Amino acid sequence: MKFGVITFPGSNCDQDMVYTLESMLDQTVEKLWHKDPDLKGVDFVILPGGFSYGDYLRSGAIASFSPIMQSVIEHANKGGYVMGICNGYQMLTETNLLGGALLHNDSQKFICKNVYLKPVSKSAIITQDLNVEETYKIPIAHGEGRFFINEDGLKELQDNDQILFQYANEAGLVDDTTNPNGSIFNIAGTTNKTKNVFGMMPHPERAVDPNLGNLDGRKLFKSILDNLV
């Protein structure tokens, strides 16, 4: 399996992701530049977090028009794997590879802290091996992370097992008190119907190195690696 990590102007988690995949998970990684549409034969594309183009329009909106994104869309439409984290998740909604939108946090403030995630989907490779009775501590760092989708869209996500994670507390309680940004239904990540495109606001790559004191992110990546086809 060959991973590709794209760098956009303003990306600040691209090297974190490269380090996680190469040094922590022993994977082959190709560094991709947003102006070059060549995906260089990668199997799994990752859109990392950051502030692409300074988030001067909507977060991820300008990046969605970068030359490489048409190749990413074609890769996804052919069944190739794509994962967007934080700013990358915003790009996936801007390109309509995933439904919904990421709006300003209901507090109107940037939030940077650890949160707990409760896995929901039983069919997506990123959650397939996770225990739905447990929670996983993963950092968030965003100002526009409030997931929104209309009622019909939410029902579709539920019916098709497309909700990856919900914000919860350590004990697994999911309610307004455990929702850091006002996301509808406490949604922290979603996938598409065919389960090859994944988006999430929290940063699992920041919870893989033992030096950071948290290894819960490693469990998400292990589930991906163990279930790739």
In short:
It is found in: Cytoplasm. The protein is α/β, with parallel strands linked by helices. The chain has helices at residues 14-24, 67-77, 87-94, 151-159, 216-227, and strands at 2-7, 28-33, 44-47, 81-85, 101-103, 111-119, 136-142, 146-148, 163-168, 187-191, 197-200.
The helix/strand order is: EHEEHEHEEEEHEEEH
> Major β-sheet, in short?
9 strands, mixed
Overall helicity: 10-25%
Which spans have pLDDT < 50 for at least 5 consecutive residues? none
Strand content: 25-35%
Cα separation of the termini? 10 Å
* Number of DSSP-assigned strands: 11
Radius of gyration: 16 Å
The mean pLDDT is 97
In CATH, what is the homologous superfamily?
Answer: Class I glutamine amidotransferase (GATase) domain
* Contiguous helical run count: 5
Q: Tell me, what's the shape?
A: globular
Spatial sequence of strands, sheet with the most strands? 2-1-3-4-11-10-9-6-7
What is the CATH domain class?
A: Alpha Beta
**CATH domain topology:** Rossmann fold
Tell me what the CATH architecture is: 3-Layer(aba) Sandwich
Structural domain tally: 1
Structural class: alpha/beta
